[in-house]
Specification:
The complex is a heterodimer of chains A (272) and B (369). Helices cover 32% and strands 26% of the residues of chain A. Chain A is of the alpha/beta class. In chain A, the strands form three sheets. In chain A, strands 6-7-8-3-9-10 form a six-stranded mixed β-sheet, with helices on both faces. A four-stranded antiparallel β-sheet of chain A has the order 2-1-4-5, covered by helices on one side. Chain B is mainly α and 369 residues long. Chain B has a single domain, classed as Orthogonal Bundle (ABC transporter involved in vitamin B12 uptake, BtuC). Chain B contains 13 helices and two strands; from the N terminus they run E-E-H-H-H-H-H-H-H-H-H-H-H-H-H. Chain B has a two-stranded antiparallel ribbon with strand order 1-2. In chain B, helix 4 packs antiparallel against helix 7 and helix 11 crosses helix 12. The longest helix of chain B is centred in the N-terminal third of the chain and has 36 residues. The chains are: A alpha/beta (272), B mainly alpha (369).
C-alpha cells in the first residue's frame, strides 16, 4: 500500500484485524480511501467487503490496529461526532410502519439534534436540500411503504445525505433494483461525487464499478489484492485471480472504461 | 433517465453555502413547529389532538368512576369534593376511598402502555411486551414462592414478585446475549423461559392448599383492590421518574426502529440505549406488578391502539401511555361496577386483550398470506 496516501487520507485503516466474535475476516488490513474519490470495493462473496465498510463506519471495532478518521482513531470520537463526518447507507435499513418520506429523511438529522433542539431551521434546510438532490421532494408526503424499490432507495440516500457528511459509505446500494434504477442511482452517486462528497460503495457488478468508480479496491479472503484506477484494477488476470472467472476485458463502447466479458460457455455450447 | 434526477447545477457542495431560499418541508401531515431560543421541536398535529382527546376522555372516565359505587354521587359533588368544596362523608368517599384507586388505574395503566411501547419498538414486533422476556411469569413465580413457601406479608410479596421478575428478565437477557442483544433472539429465549416458568407456576398452585391457591390466583390476575394513597404515591413517584427516563431515551428508540446499523451510523450508541430501554421498560412494569399483581395485556394493546389513533411513524410513547391509562381505568370500572360480581381488573384486561390479540393475529396472518 502506498504509505504517502495513508498519511494524508482522511479515512484509512491501519493494520487492522476486523471480524465478528471469534471469526476473523481481515487480518493486518491496511487501506486508505483517497479523499474526494468515488471508491468502489469489489470482490467475491464473503471476501470482507462489507466487513471493511462496517469497520470504516465504526459499526465494527477492530480487535487490533485502528481505523483513522481525520488523524485520530475513529473509536476515540463521540458517536455523534463520527456521524457528522461519515454517513452510511446500510443494507439492512428498515422503514418504520406508516412513516412518510420527509419524516424518514429527517431521521438523518439525528447527529445534530438534542433533547430540546430537535428541528432547527438548519435541520429543515438540510432535509429540503437532501430531498432535492435525490429528486424525492415530490414524494415528501407519501408513505415510504407505498414507494417503488427505486424511489425507496433514493429516499434512503436522501436520509444519508441529510446527515451532511463529506464521506458517505454505501453498502451494496444497487442490490434488488432493476437495471434502469441501478444506473439512475449510480449517476446520482456520480453527481454527489462531483459536488465534493467522498463516496465508498460496495458493488457486485464489476462493469458498474469500472464505469462509475474513480478508485477501485479489489478484495479476496479479507485482504486487498489490488487497488487503483479502474483501468489498473480491472484486468483479465486480476478478475481470474480474484473471482476465479476467465474473461476478456474490452473497453466499454460508450464510456471507454474496462468491461468484463466472461469466457464461459455460450448458450449453444453444451457442458463438456 | 426518465425520472427527474436534478441536473448538476442544482446540487450544492456538502459543506458549501446554501444559496437556495428557505424551504419548508412537506411531511404529508400537519406538523407544529416550535422554535424559541434553544428549543426547536416538531410535533405531529394529529398526535397532539389525539393525546388531548385521550386526556379529556380519561378525565371524564375518572369523574364517572368517582361517582359510581354503593354510595352514588353526582358529577357536581365529585368535582366540588376534588376542588375542596365538600367536607365530611362525600369528601372522604371521593378523596380518601375512590380517588387512590382511580389515580392508581391511570398511573399504572400509563406505565404499562409506555412499557409496552418500549418493547414493541425495540423488538419491532406488535406482539412484544415485557412478558416476552419472561417478566410476568417470573414475577408470578416469585410471588407464588412467597405466598406458598413462607406465607409472607404484603411487602414480602412485593419483594418476591420484583425479585422473580427481575431475575427472570436478567436471565433471559443474558441467555440471549451474544455480542449484543438481537431482538429476535430475545423473543425466542423469552418465550422458552416463560413457558418453563408457566409450567412451574402451575405445578406450584397444584401442590398448594385450596385457600392459598385461591389467594395466589387473585394476585396472579392483577387487582387494584385495597390500593391506598401510600402505595399510589410510592408507585407513582417511581413511575414518574421512569417515564422521564423513557422520554429521554425516546429519540434513540425512534432512531433504532431504522435498524441497528442505520441508528449506529447516525450516532446512536445502540447497545447502551437498548439496555437502558429494556431496564426502564421492565422497571415500569415491575412497579405496577409489585403494587397490583400482573395486569395483563394493557402493555400489549395500548401501543398499537395509540399508533393507529395517532397514525405515527412507528411506535411512540405518549399515545401509548395515554391509551394505557384510559384502558386501565375503563377496565377497572367494568371490573368493579359492570361485572355481576366485582372482579380483579386483570380479568377484564385479559378479556379485552384476548379479543384484540385474536384480531391482531387474524389481520397479521391475512396480510402475510
Amino acid at each position: 500500500m502506498s504509505g504517502a496516501m495513508t498519511d494524508i487520507a482522511r479515512l484509512h485503516v491501519e493494520s487492522a484485524t476486523i471480524g465478528y466474535d471469534k471469526r476473523i475476516i481481515s487480518e493486518h488490513l491496511s487501506v486508505a480511501i483517497p479523499d474526494e474519490s468515488f471508491t468502489v470495493i469489489v470482490g467475491p462473496n464473503a471476501c470482507g467487503k462489507s466487513t471493511l465498510l462496517r469497520g470504516l463506519s465504526r459499526l465494527l471495532k477492530p480487535s487490533a490496529g485502528q481505523v483513522v478518521l481525520d488523524g485520530a482513531d475513529i473509536s476515540s470520537y463521540k458517536s455523534k461526532e463520527v456521524a457528522r463526518r461519515v454517513g452510511l447507507l446500510p443494507q439492512t435499513a428498515l422503514a418504520p410502519d406508516g412513516i412518510t418520506v420527509a419524516d424518514l429523511v429527517a431521521r438523518g438529522r439525528y447527529p445534530y439534534q438534542g433533547f430540546v433542539r430537535q428541528w432547527t431551521e438548519a435541520d429543515e434546510q438540510a432535509v429540503a436540500r437532501a430531498m432535492n438532490q435525490t429528486a424525492v421532494t415530490e414524494l415528501s408526503g407519501r408513505l415510504v411503504d407505498e414507494l417503488s424499490g427505486g424511489q425507496r432507495q433514493r429516499v434512503w440516500v436522501a436520509m444519508a445525505l441529510a446527515q451532511h457528511t463529506d464521506i458517505l459509505l454505501l453498502d451494496e446500494p444497487t442490490t434488488f433494483l432493476d437495471i434502469a434504477h441501478q444506473i439512475e442511482l449510480l449517476e446520482l452517486f456520480t453527481d454527489l461525487h462531483h459536488v465534493g462528497h467522498t463516496l465508498v460503495a460496495v458493488l457486485h457488478d464489476l462493469n458498474h464499478a469500472a464505469r462509475y468508480g474513480t478508485h477501485l479496491i479489489a478484495m479476496k479472503d479479507g485482504q486487498v489484492v489490488a487497488e487503483g484506477t479502474p483501468e489498473e484494477v480491472v484486468t483479465a488476470e486480476l478478475v481470474e485471480e480474484v473471482f476465479g472467472l476467465r474473461c476478456l476485458v474490452v473497453p466499454d463502447p460508450v464510456a471507454g472504461t474496462p468491461q468484463v466479458v466472461p469466457l464461459g460457455r455460450t448458450r449453444k455450447e453444451k457442458a463438456v | 433517465m426518465s425520472t427527474g434526477i436534478p441536473s448538476r447545477s442544482r446540487l450544492a457542495h456538502p459543506r458549501g453555502a446554501d444559496e437556495t431560499p428557505a424551504e419548508r418541508v412537506d411531511f404529508g401531515r400537519r406538523v407544529l413547529v416550535v422554535r424559541r431560543r434553544r428549543i426547536a421541536v416538531r410535533l405531529e398535529g394529529r398526535s397532539v389532538v389525539v393525546c388531548a382527546v385521550l386526556v379529556l376522555a380519561a378525565a371524564g372516565m375518572a369523574v364517572l368512576a368517582l361517582m359510581t359505587g354503593s354510595y352514588q354521587l353526582s358529577a357536581g359533588q365529585v368535582v366540588s369534593a376534588l376542588t375542596g368544596g365538600e367536607t365530611g362523608i362525600v369528601r372522604d368517599i371521593v378523596v380518601e376511598w375512590r380517588l387512590p384507586r382511580v389515580v392508581a388505574a391511570l398511573v399504572f395503566g400509563g406505565a404499562l402502555g409506555a412499557s409496552g411501547a418500549i418493547f414493541q419498538s425495540l423488538l419491532r414486533n406488535p406482539l412484544a411486551d415485557p412478558g416476552i422476556i419472561g417478566f410476568s411469569q417470573g414475577s408470578y413465580t416469585g410471588a407464588l414462592l412467597v405466598i406458598l413457601v413462607i406465607n409472607g406479608t404484603y411487602w414480602q410479596l412485593v419483594g418476591g414478585a420484583l425479585l422473580g421478575g427481575m431475575a427472570t428478565a436478567l436471565a433471559v437477557y443474558v441467555l440471549a446475549y451474544r455480542n449484543g442483544v438481537q431482538g429476535f433472539r430475545l423473543i425466542v429465549v423469552g418465550i422458552g423461559v416463560s413457558a418453563m416458568l408457566a409450567s412451574l407456576n402451575t405445578w406450584l398452585i397444584l401442590k398448594a392448599d385450596l385457600e392459598v391457591a385461591m389467594a395466589a390466583a387473585v394476585w396472579g390476575a392483577g387487582s387494584l383492590n385495597g390500593v391506598s394513597w401510600g402505595r399510589v404515591v410510592v408507585g407513582g413517584a417511581c413511575i414518574a421518574a421512569l417515564l422521564l427516563l423513557a422520554g429521554m431515551l425516546s429519540r434513540p428508540m425512534q432512531q433504532m426502529e431504522l435498524g441497528d446499523d442505520a441508528a449506529a451510523s447516525q450516532g446512536v450508541r445502540v447497545s447502551p440505549a437498548r439496555l437502558g430501554l429494556i431496564v426502564v421498560g421492565v422497571a415500569l412494569t415491575a412497579t405496577v406488578t409489585a403494587a397490583s399483581g400482573p395486569i395483563a395485556f394493557i402493555s400489549l394493546v395500548a401501543p398499537q391502539i395509540g399508533r393507529r389513533l395517532a397514525r405515527t411513524a412507528g411506535i411512540t410513547l405518549a399515545p401509548a401511555a395515554f391509551v394505557g391509562a384510559l384502558l386501565c381505568l375503563a377496565a377497572d370500572y367494568i371490573a368493579q361496577h359492570v361485572a355481576p360480581t366485582p372482579l380483579p381488573v386483570g380479568i377484564i384486561t385479559v378479556m379485552l386483550g384476548g379479543g384484540y390479540l385474536g384480531y391482531l393475529l387474524f389481520t397479521e396472518a391475512r396480510r402475510r398470506l
